[in-house]
Amino acid sequence: MEGTGKHGGDQLSVKKSEPVLIEPETRTHSGFFFLCNLDHMVTHSVETVYFYKAKKWGGSRDTLSDTFKQSLAKILVHYYPLAGRLRLGSDGKYNVECTNEGVLFVEARANCNMDQVDVKVIIDDHSETAGKLVYGSPDPENILENPLMTAQVTRFRCGGFALGLSISHLIADGLSAMEFIKSWSETARGMPLTTKPVLDRSILRSRQPPKIDFHFDQYAPAETSNVSNISNPFQGEQILTKCFLFDSNKLAILKSMAMEDGTIKSCSNFTALTAFVWRARCKALQMNPDQTTPLLLVVDVRSKLNPPLPKGYFGNGIVLITCPGRAGELIKNTLSFAVEEVQNGIKMVNEEFVRSWIDYLEVMGAKDFPLHSYFKVSSWTRLSIECSDFGWGEPAQFACTNLPKNSAFFLPDGKEKKGINLILDLPVTAMSTFQELMLL
């Protein structure tokens, strides 16, 4: 199997071997594994790529792949649901049958050196390039037949390699996926697990009877029409995905702008950047003043429950919150207005909100919300990407490669995480305007 993609003006060619199944080293639990309501919100996969610098690894040419395959077989004993397959129950919900079938593993070779491949190029050209470094499911339309995880190790010339992973969002959110990768890397180095996975998802079962104390009508299917109408001004234009770096200086400027009128006394990098992008996106898309542009935030609830979810909880520990907005209000008011809207939305998330959200999902039976009218923002800035050391050091570069439509994604910049990489998709003309607004 071969594929090509751009990397700095040249052609990246990747030759892939046929995939093989990696099963758990020893027989694990059988039967069905419960997925809670929070697991059902999103059914696409989390796709990531980790780049490791050139180093000499002794032994045969297969040592690199053998290290990954052998350690993967070992770690799957602890994370055994990943080796199973999805099943659809009579209630319309997914569960995992623990079949021990394993995950797909692919070896590949690239035609260039790793230093010729830049993460920003991969993000900007994700539809063409990322697919060469991340092995997608054989039948993406049939999630019941596909493995819950695939792994691809791509060797570059003169050493260096990339690890491309695809993990079903039904089995893990970004934080849990990263915790799995950390545990896998510890196993590869022959170390004990720092944190053992907690697989019991009954912690997040719905209450009986359900008790909903918050209004979630905005998520009902009847309300998910394209009320923002964002595609009309740029009908038929190509959608671009770009990466913008907000270093510590730019983030400080944003926070200063947000607080300069005295409306708010403090704000985080996340709230300042989210509010700024929300407003700038309205301008770039030339929204009319009455156009609705609700902001959808992905909020980690692990620490917001009482008691908090146990350390190592493996699953989805996130909820969605909506900050309603109209383009005219966001644009005419100062940045503090949008920041306050974001802050108020996040403040709502507490124990009762989360429990009500879980109960709402139970009543509605909703999964994979068609929220095309929303602008969705997710942040991975606190993830410990540097912990993904499989024996060849920390990743030199990292990327998330499958950005959902109408979304923005925040990734940490550098080891010290002082900056934020913003990944955003927009029509070509709107992206040009957005780039001008980024010049702080």
TrEMBL record:
Name the record gives this protein: Omega-hydroxypalmitate O-feruloyl transferase
Family membership: Belongs to the plant acyltransferase family.
Region Disordered, annotated ranges: 1-20
Bilayer-spanning residue ranges: none
UniProt cross-references to SUPFAM superfamilies, sorted A to Z: CoA-dependent acyltransferases (SSF52777)
GO molecular function terms noted in the UniProt entry: acyltransferase activity, transferring groups other than amino-acyl groups
